[in-house]
Hints:
Strand content: 5-15%
Amino acid sequence: MDWHMTLFNNKSMRPLAVRMRPRCFSEFLGQRHILSSGGIIEQIIKSDIFPSLILYGPPGTGKTSLALLLAREKQMKFVYLNAAVSNVKELRTVLFSARERFNKTGLRTMLFIDEIQRFNASQQEVLLPFVEEGSSIFVGASVENPLFVLIPALNSRCLVIELKRLSDQEVFTGLKRALQDKERGFARDIKVDDPVLWSIAKRSDGDMRRAYTMLEILCAGKDKITVQDLERLTGRKVLYYDRASDMHYDTISSFIKAMRRGDEQEATYWLSKMLYAGEDPRFIVRRMIIFASEDIGMADPNALVVAVSSYHALQVVGLPEAEFVLMQACMYLSRAPKSQETKERLFALKEQIEKEQSKVPKKFVQPKLPK
């Protein structure tokens, strides 16, 4: 499928997420780690060499949009395939056409394969000779780590670029842009209060496509959107809990203090409130991992195992199922005996090392270690 027309020039009604695709890199939301000056994308654009790429990251972070912009910048024909519905016959047809086009006109083709992780080993092997010859540039998109889902031969021929979840602020900016853009967003004036947009941003979990879809459904046939409209759509009450506000830090602090006191009831309450309000569960688990070593430590070394295991479980099953895992870990850490021996030992040694002379002595002297 050639998306040059359908995604950039076609004026027919399409989903908001498609209409709001960035038309240039300055409109791209997030991913400053690869789009900033001197970053990998700038190097690819300026270079005569265009490597085959694997764009790896969560849904709705801009993998397809990034490939489209690169194809336009490098003046390549863009062909889209989805690994979930494509087969070897279709893949070969596209690749041979790209080779013929290159031989006749010198125009290279960017073959973008979405959900590349769904191709089996035999399907991936079809790409290898074409990637080598350079008539087509392969760009794959995957939500799974390519090291585990792609064959080594294909991995070694591709540069992996990781995209990250968008922040609440970046999603909020995208939603605001859609409301203000009369050409690609909404043709009419729609009043949506900022608290509603922030709530949508939090519920999207860094997925811009999900946020646009929610906004589009809310705005269908309406000129004003309220918090009550969002609550009716999601079936959940909107809590005024901003991840960047004092409430964010106060709540996580109360959570940690409750576990430190062994108050399991209060700790699980704060955990539930954070999850309900849309707090990033990875932030919560990271704090539990720190707590397991800093506040429990050698009193129960297994607490660290439990906390780290909860992080891996979150990565595997995701929310909402992982809420059970986080609750179990919170209950374990609250009940565990507490000891700050690890913390005290670490700080004592740091203090001693800072007091030692920085110059190297003529001969090694065994230091007197704190008890």
